[in-house]
Amino acid sequence: MANEKKATNGTMEQVAEMRNGNFIVRREVIRDKRGNQYMTDDGRLYFKYKLCGTLRGRRIAVDFSPKDKGGYVPLDLVFDVNPEAELDITDEVTEFNGRKQHRTVYTVNTVDENGVVWHAEVKPTGKSDVDLLTMLMNMVNKQIKTVEVDPETAA
């Protein structure tokens, strides 16, 4: 497991934890004032999904949430294997009526003990999270992969 580091004023500081060239997103428990984990009415536990890093000496966290309301089930399946997953970022390009449309896709991936890849699509929770993620990517010179998508097969 490699940690991406940058030199600042002669010292090395960790920018963000990375594996295989991808940022690591962690699932963390959401607790109340008494330290108990929050729970839904039907008994499911609440979690938050964060990418932690350091920018200019400040600890920052980029929050992620599921792509849609039903996305918590796939996220639970991904993070049941391991409490951390790799964040894969791609730029999907679709040509429709002669115009190219770009869509940034954020996916968390993990591999279980049998070699099966588990993945779920996520999104940065707010605009500030997108900005922080962009700054982290600039610090480690991470490039976004571009993928051409056929509009007839795209959902």
What does this molecule look like?
It is a single chain. Helix content is 15%, strand content 52%. It has 155 residues and is mainly β. It has a 6-stranded antiparallel beta barrel. The protein starts with a strand and ends in a 6-residue tail after the last strand.
Task: Draw up the topology in text.
Layout: E1 2-8, E2 11-19, E3 22-29, E4 47-55, E5 58-66, H1 72-81, E6 84-96, E7 99-111, E8 117-124, H2 127-139, E9 145-149
Parallel strand pairs: 6-9
Antiparallel strand pairs: 1-2, 2-3, 3-4, 3-6, 4-5, 5-8, 6-7, 7-8
The tally of domains stands at 1
Average pLDDT value? 85
The spatial strand order of the largest sheet comes to 3-4-5-8-7-6
Assign the structural class, choosing from mainly alpha, mainly beta, alpha/beta, alpha+beta, or little secondary structure.
mainly beta
Report the total helices: 2
Would you report the number of β strands?
Answer: 9
Shape: globular
Supply Rg. 17 Å
Low-confidence stretches: none
Topology order in helix (H) and strand (E) letters: EEEEEHEEEHE
Main β sheet profile: 6 strands, antiparallel, barrel
Helix content: 10-25%
Beta content comes to over 45%
Q: N-to-C terminal Cα separation, in Å?
A: 35 Å
